[in-house]
Write a structure and sequence with these properties.
homodimer, 185 residues, alpha+beta, 434 Repressor (Amino-terminal Domain), Jelly Rolls, four-stranded antiparallel beta sheet, DNA-binding
DNA sequence: TTGTTCCGTTCGATTTGACGAACACCCGTT
DNA sequence: AACGGGTGTTCGTCAAATCGAACGGAACAA
């Protein structure tokens, strides 16, 4: 949905980048991967529509997790001070979620900072199927997790639960904070 | 390196899973994706070596980020109390990193809880290329980031920086805690 | 110079993935 | 029963991805 058409150019660039990062020549990479030099040459020139088998062999030969060949490049250093950043105050309760990081194109994992006060609990309806949330409590105490199986958490506690099922977050003491990693996978 | 040979079976399963998650028939998916029914049938039966173009078209038609088709399945609810879990005490300084979550096979994003005391700083040599670390301070104060561009952080602060370049973490006050998301991408 | 050995590219032959029609099957209706 | 509409499968054809060899160029030694 966020995708247009196959990222041939990006893959081409990625292959070349990874190849000379590993200090390999076309000939050598061809030998290691079991592919033909010509195939690699064409791929690096953006001409070609590699098969899964070909791409996988490349990933193995280059020692990269494969998605590295198709996914977009990386960011740099970014700092968000406490209180800054896009804060999403929940309509319910005293609950603030600040979006710290999101994977831009296909959105794969978002990072939130949570600040909540005791009171009514925040219930979240299911997100994208396959979503998993990871929660780490920084301060205070909270009751969180799936609505039918919530867990009381203290500072330092870690809880992972499906994000594609109803779940809640309730602060039990004032100024309860935490970090949520939401992976849309 | 963590890879063996192309995950045809996994992709086959993923396609079928995503397809009836979306409530689509083979015929309908064929229409939307612009692919032939026969092609899809063969892919779902594990017979086939799809081209990048084909895989991409599938990802678009199914509305999934593409890596979802090649990557492994999902976990459930998991709880790690403070103090539990596989703790990796750093040889240097008073620094404890507890691994909370890791994506098993292709490893893509790891979640750590950090506990550190003031003293010598912990320097990390570069990890896998393309790695990015996200750091959120829970309590205390710390100096962290790339060695040539460290930042002083207070509770609630968030910092992202390349993990494939030398970086450090120094607690400035006792019992400094934080959460690190390490994405190997 | 000549010979050697790499590099990456180009080209023809062959393998093979994608297509589309025909197929067998199941189900609800007439 | 026979139908029409839906499912997913199988098979022959064609375009294209992969291969392997030959190519031109650069670097270096004898």
């Amino acid at each position: 949905m966020t995708d247009g058409k196959p990222p041939f150019e990006r893959i081409a660039a990625a292959i070349r980048r990874e190849r000379d990062r590993a200090g390999l020549s076309l000939t050598e990479l061809a030998k290691r991967s079991g592919l033909a030099k010509s195939t690699l040459s064409q791929l690096e020139s953006g001409t070609g529509n590699p098969s899964l088998e070909t791409l996988w062999a490349l990933g193995v030969a280059l020692g990269v997790p494969f998605s590295r060949l198709v996914d977009p490049p990386r960011p740099a250093v970014r700092l968000i001070r406490a209180g800054e950043g896009p804060a999403a105050h929940s309509g319910q309760a005293s609950y603030t979620a600040t979006l710290l990081a999101s994977s831009p194109p296909g959105a794969r994992r978002d990072l939130y900072r949570i600040e909540a006060q005791p009171g009514e609990s925040r219930r979240s309806e299911p997100h994208m199927p396959g979503t998993v949330e990871h929660l780490v409590i920084g301060a205070g105490r909270a009751l969180a997790g799936p609505v039918d199986e919530p867990v009381e958490l203290a500072p330092g506690d870690y809880l992972a639960y499906p994000g594609d099922a109803p779940h809640l977050f309730t602060a039990l003491v004032p100024d309860t904070t935490g970090v949520i990693v939401m992976e849309h996978v």
